[in-house]
Every structure is written in C-alpha cells, then in structure tokens.
Amino acid sequence: MQPFAFEPALFDHRAEATEALSRAGYQWLSNFSTIDLMHDVFGIEVCGIAEENDARCIECVLRRTFPSWKHYYIWLPTPEHGHLDISWIAVIHRDAPRGS
User: Fold this and answer.
1) DSSP string, the chain
2) Which pLDDT belongs to residue 86?
3) Residue 14 near residue 35, CB atoms below 8 Å
4) Domain that holds residue 68
5) Domains of the chain: total
6) Using one digit for the tens of pLDDT, what is the confidence trace for 10-68?
7) Looking at the domain assignment, is residue 42 inside a domain?
8) Which of 94, 44, 95, 53 is closest to 76 using CA atoms?
9) What are phi and psi of 32, to 5 degrees?
C-alpha cells in the first residue's frame, strides 16, 4: 500500500478551477456539487454534474485552466462503483496513476 500523499498546492488549484468554472457560467451547487482533491495523482475532480454535455464542457474548462495536466476524462459512476449519487464526474490530473 502506497503512503498517503498530501499536496497542499491542490487547494489553490481548486480555487483556480472554481473561478474558471464560474467565468464559464458553471456555478457551485447549481451545475456541480463539489470539487474534490486527488492527492495521489495531483489532480481535481468536479463531481455532481447532472448532464453529460455539461461534464464534457467542464472538462474543457479544466483542460484550458491546467494545460500541462495531461490526464483527463469524464465518467458516470454507478452503484457497482460504490456510488449512491449517479451523476457525472469530470477529472483532470497531472500525474499518471501508480502502476500504469
């Protein structure tokens, strides 16, 4: 098991993402529910997006905001993934997942 990696800089990046999403017309609690930090791969995920098209647009905003972060995708978790909230997630991160 890998030790937990804590990346304090991600808090500033979350604020940057929030501002970029707001400028693009996406508001917290209206268009998405949270922006979570991904310390293990130095990234963020925007969760609670109702529509797939919004998730794709949010992914584009994230890619413009963090152009050097090369790993990005959207996905729709299901109860099989352990999620009760079935909503889209847009993910972007700088580092490759360990073991890939």
Assistant:
1) -PPP---THHHHHHHHHHHHHHHTT--BTTTBSEEEEETTTTEEEEEEE--HHHHHHHHHHHHHHSTT--EEEEE---GGGT-SS--EEEEEESSPPTT-
2) 80
3) yes
4) 9-93
5) 1
6) 999 999 999 999 999 999 999 999 999 999 999 999 999 999 999 999 999 999 999 99
7) yes
8) 53
9) -155, 160
For 85, other C-beta atoms within 10 Å of its C-beta total 10
Contact 44, 36 (CB under 8 A): yes
* 8 A C-beta contact, residue 67 and residue 13: no
Answer for the pair 66, 19: CB distance below 8 angstroms, yes or no. no
Confidence class for position 1, pLDDT limits 50, 70, 90: very low
Residue 98 is encoded by which pair of tokens?
Answer: 């360990």
The residues with which 90 forms a beta bridge, in sequence order, are 46, 74
